[in-house]
Amino acid sequence: MKNITAKIKQSFQWFLYMFGLSSSVVSSRRGEARLARNDETLGTNTGRVMTRPYKIAGTSIVVIAVIALFAVLSNKSADATWFNDRWSYRIPVTVNYTGSVELTGFQVKVVMSALGVDALKSAGKLQSDCADLRFTSADGHVLPYWIEDISDTNDLESASCTNTNGAVWVKLDSIQTGGATIYAYYGNPVAQSESNGENTFEFFDGFGGSTVDTSKWSEDTSSFSVSSGILSHTGGAVQHNVRHTTGLASNANWRIITKSKVSDGNHDAYIGIGDSSTALRVSGNGVGARISGGTDVWEWAKWVSATETQLGIGGTNSAPADTYHRIEVTKAGTTFTYKLNGSQVDQDTVSEYNYTYFHVEAFDQAFYDYVVMTKYAATEPGTPSTGSEQAQSAVTGNAAPVAYWPLTKDTYNSGTSSLADLGGSADSGQPPVLHLTMDDGDIDSHSCPDGGAVAGACDVSGSGNHGTANGTMTDSDYVTGKIGPKALDFDGTDDYLAVADSDGLDASEAVTVSAWVNGTSWADADRKSVFIKGGAYYLTVSPSGNVAVYGYGKSSQGYHLSNATLSTGTWYSLALTIDPNGFKIYINGVLDKTIAATGLITTNTGVSAVGAEPGGTSRFFNGKIDEVKIYNYARTPEQIKADYNNTKAYFAGGN
Fold first, then answer.
1. Within a domain: 160
2. Are 126 and 10 within one domain?
3. Count of alpha carbons within 13 Å of 409, Cβ hemisphere only?
4. Beta strands at 420-421 and 458-459: parallel, antiparallel or unpaired
5. Which phi and psi angles does 619 have, rounded to 5°?
6. pLDDT per residue over 367-379, tens digit each?
7. 6: part of which helix (H) or strand (E)?
């Protein structure tokens, strides 16, 4: 925001000077011209007021306004909204494009070396298998991606997350003339990989099942088998093929990629396209490439009425047997390009046929790791370039949560062992003080991924807080979550999570408490606790279903009730902010009520609890709780809304 405001001011000053009006801008409340920016939109009064004490000709002021607006928009990618506060870092990735036609739903390859993943892993910022890697558009929209192993081993993400072996295919919503900026996010130690070829490509098969997927392939499927992510030809010394079931758009442009190998001897592996459903060497017309185990070379050829014409052949030992090779065939009109292991080896012009099928063919012992089809354009985007790393606090100006419990562990056993802090890679400067996840703790082994002790939930805030699981919780209390795979179901009788006292949870001036809740029943003689810091601040639900909040030390402590009431059996996102001016209650990202109250929040040595009064004496929550967060500052309405939108739309289970 500061950079944008400065750019606007600089543009005004420069143009006033050029028109001979002034070399500076004088602040005044008379005749003011206001330009403001709130995140990605114009129109809210958050920018600096720039005033004009001089009379300027209409044309001049239009020019000034246009230039100022351009200054705002030109900074859009640099100030793009942070997509999710659980990720600590990001790198801007620029996709250059000089074509005149907009590309939509287009796949772009970003090599791991451009992101510098080796250095990021060494610094402890990125998981060893790139599981926390995510990509978004400039406006924070999450983009599908797939991590490809470009080495000669099987396609394993653990082997792909290196500068040498890895690449990421990202599917962009739109690439217009001049290119696009996307962001690569990382820095979440507990995120699970969302690499998914099905969502990224026009066609994808990573052979993850136990049989040939007949919804994708037809013809000689019985001559192939699938095991451990590999498609194997089992039909003996006979030519067999499987072809893409739905076929290709007539004469469309495309790129087909596979990683395959053959055994030493008279064995061949093919990939290509044709106008016949049968194998290229059997009937019809087509173009393709193959590797041959008998000669340890690879070749590319065309077939006319099943008669093969060799178009080119690699050098001696260009494709050794028993080694996986990456074969890529691209069609652009009548021009075919062939690449082996990332290097272009030839380009040919072949008469246009009605190519409607792409084939995977084999003779004797041949193996395929994956098959991918991408879009292709006459003018392809250039090789993406990357910018400097950006930390969350530097972009948003705020810290990550000081407490965060996603409540998403797959299994749970009863007990009263310690909960542990899992963090360690949170953003520098203002890291969270508590962040418990329910999918990484293990009560039996008392260990989190960072080695700390745990009892069913890991704190990933990085602040060393510990807690205790209480009541009669069992594995069955972990149920389908709103955000992520799991949430915790409290029985309303004795279940709760206790959190020991921590200086980080003391918030004398300001605090934000947020959570997703789904009540089974609100009926009770007292309020149902979502989160309580004993003797300090409370987020609860009243017996009538109103959000009920309290703040010790404030001039009007509470309980203060929301205007809206919550139904049972429905997920709601709740947020409470307390600052020197009072309280604000939010429901589903929208401000529901503001309560004026001066004074500071009481700080003490009291413990905290999720799902009950600290100590487990009363106010037991009856229902599900997910994604509990504590911030040591008051989040703005825009941040509350963005947090609600990002979480509900992004995580599995969200609507």
1. yes
2. no
3. 26
4. parallel
5. 55, 40
6. 999 999 999 988 9
7. helix 2-18
